[in-house]
Amino acid sequence: MSAPTRILLADDHALVRRGVRLILDNEPDLVVVAEAGDGAEAIDQAGEHQPDLAILDIAMPRLTGLQAAREMIRRQPSLRVLLLTMYDNEQFFFEGLRVGASGYVLKSVADRDLVQACRAAMRDEPFLYPGAVTALVHDYLDRVARGESVPERTITVREEEVLKLVAEGHSSREIAELLFISVKTVERHRTNLLQKLGLRDRLGLARYAIRVGLIEP
């Protein structure tokens, strides 16, 4: 028999992690080797434990699951990633594809879909919860018919990281330390964000971050 798939599980709610772990622990070919409570911790745990598969909640403190996935895959290209979320959100799905995720699982049906998604990811097969497939295909075909493409990013990856931390209430110095950049660079990114998004202050940035799913209200 082959070795079980080694899994990193990241979610900022301990009860959710416990429930997901119960689902996975019942499967002989899956084993959770590490847990994390936010995206930054997930990156650290992935570096330490070198899992085969990471299951990441999208809405987490410090770094989102999407931001963490981007960095984890950059560091460990063979890592498979599944996104776990409460939100049936087209933008999250397409962004997940961009960063290299293998699948997108709704928490509401995790007991039904998660094990199947894990095994599909390890076979290098994409997984999307069944209820979304038809809607996404229709949406894509409608975009093509209108001459549109998949939505483009409004802001850069680094600006998104700064935006999330600003919206969470971190100071410029704290953000600089978390992202290993200078305070001056943080301020420049904040200014660029306000200009790009047509906003005036931190409150506006926080509202925008909630609207696009970077933080929870």
Number of domains: 2
Q: Residue-averaged pLDDT, rounded?
A: 84
* Low-pLDDT ranges: none
Instruction: Categorize the overall geometry.
Output: globular
The sequence of SSEs as H and E is EHEHEHEHEHEHHHHH
What does the main sheet amount to? 6 strands, parallel
Structural class: alpha/beta
Cross-sheet strand order for the largest sheet = 2-1-3-4-5-6
CATH fold-level topology of the largest domain: Rossmann fold
The Rg value, from CA coordinates, equals 18 Å
Structure described in brief:
Keywords: DNA-binding, Phosphoprotein, Transcription, Transcription regulation. This is Response regulator transcription factor. Helices cover 54% and strands 14% of the residues.
